[in-house]
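Provenance

Sequences were taken from public entries as deposited. Structures were produced by running a predictor on each sequence independently, with no templates supplied. The record for ABC transporter ATP-binding protein from Rhodovulum sulfidophilum is shown for reference.
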Amino acid sequence: MPQTDTPPEAVGASQPVGAKPDFFSSLKLMMRYGQGNGTVIAVSAVLATTAVALELVPVWAIWRAVTALAADEASAALFARLALLTLAAVVAGYTLLGLAMALSHLAAYRLIHALRLALARHLARLPMGWFLGKRSGGAKKLIVDEPERMELIVAHGLPEGVSSLGTWLAVTIWLFVVDWRMALAAVALTPVSFALISMAMARTTVMAGEYQRLSERLNGAVVEYLAGMPVVKVFNRTGAAQSETAEAVRAYADIETGMARRFVPLGAAFYTLVVANVVTILPAGLLMMKAGWIDLPTLCFFLILGANYSQPLLKLFNLFHNMAHISMASTLISDVLDTPAQPDTGQRVALPSHDIAFEDVRFGYGPHEVLHGISFTAAAGEVTALVGPSGSGKSTAASLIPRLYDVDSGRVTLGGVDIREIGLDQLMEETAFVFQQTFLFSGTIAENIRFGKPGATASELYAAAKAARAHDFILALPQGYETRLGEGGASLSGGERQRIAIARAILKDAPVIVLDEATAFADPDSEAAIQEALSALSRGRTLIVVAHRLHTVMGAGRIVVLDKGRVAETGRHDDLVAKGGLYARLWDDYVAARAIPLRPGAPETQKPGAPHEKHSVPRMETAQ
Ligand SMILES: Nc1ncnc2c1ncn2[C@@H]1O[C@H](COP(=O)(O)OP(=O)(O)OP(=O)(O)O)[C@@H](O)[C@H]1O
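Predicted structure for ABC transporter ATP-binding protein:
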């Protein structure tokens, strides 16, 4: 559900508020991920410079024609030659500019592609702890929106920037060569324009960090608002839920307006002055002509060329104006890419067995320690159940096995080897995990199950689905295994999604399987069937099951009872019940809860323990 009290630091912003952009970060990213693009960019810049230089040909032709007229040397042949030359220069200029832009866009999209891939790959290698407190909107913005900003700098900034600067320098020299006094008049306003735009940019650049943060907040709030829509609706909290989204929209609009307000007074003066050279050229030129220092053609030349003399600068500053945002984005991208990946030895280790052991494991999410030195063994070939009150650390302990998080101290071993010594690829091959909250990708059901083993044959696929009791309902769907799922598997029921996830784990055929409340959504018949399938699966494998519904683990070889992040007791069901400790209390509560009739006067439901029993009581703890 959208949060209304999200602290600024929890919205995925890795930039501190008010952070200044590093203007070299884009360049560094280009050098790092733009390999092979250097030549393309250089050729593009040369073509663009040539194209812009060709734009000067018509100016020269006019000047030449005016000079000829003034000297009484004009002829039809001369004008025809000048016209042809102008036409050729314009056509060639546009062709070269088109080529330059095509090349620069090619380079830009190659870079964006490389950046997005690098980010997606690197995010997958970051420890889960990095994602804590980050909103999915922020991550989406990081991969989708931020690299896109590089388009402006590579596709436009480099060719147009280089050519604009080149043209401006060439024109300046040309002006001075023709007449240095008129040239001074033509460039007189340029330093003033420079000073104005520098001040305007300095006034907005200080807000770039805050702008970035608010833009991430907006993304996060909108994504969360849409994802939480069902909760928002059923609790009729549209107004309340929107308040964070509306606030994020308002804050973003405020900062944009604020930045515009700070930029506009000086920025507008710059845009006016930068093309106002005629204001100094005309009076100075008329005075100098009157004094006999220059002739009419020279005045015309300065009026034509000098009046637009700063046009390239305008382009340049339009690009610079966006540099703060671009630099902020590239700093953010670099920060993420520089975040150390989860340590991985990359080694394949010969494992003598697939026993899992927790040895004095301590772990916390951030400073808040959740597991306070737990030790237990899950032997290969038997089912080990993790049970305990809500919040006791069952899911957390389970998530340490596939290294979703790394222990803070102690160790988790597989076959006696610290799992941090085993290469991540191998560890992922050795373990399959069914999450409490099943995630299915949009795509077909077959694709989702095959996620566990991409090259699986159709018969392997069906066998896994049958074992997970998913085959029949899949066949009943309109396109069977080829039925496409909505985002997150939205078109299936909770139980169906869970069975697909179990099929995925079964297909993976890993020696270690961790099931976090895997049958929570299953109906009683399916649950019993899935339990049978899982028991069969446990033969020769290490099966670790996190369970709330205690009857599902009555047959477990070992039950590890967690309490407030510590192992309270371990043993088999009967022994633990007989012992009269925490497990016995949990069991009594469970039995009592299952016996509570749903409606006053309804008959009591069957006591647990009987196979295939139908129970219509609210589930302990998982019921919300
Ligand atoms: N991502 C997280 N960030 C911070 N704290 C977390 C996170 N996940 C769990 N916790 C905290 O860790 C503790 C243990 O949670 P965990 O989910 O492991 O318990 P559990 O026994 O599996 O609970 P449940 O039975 O309700 O699923 C809880 O206090 C919980 O608030």
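Residues 8-338 form a domain with the ABC transporter transmembrane region fold fold (CATH 1.20.1560.10).
The chain has two domains: 8-338, 356-595.
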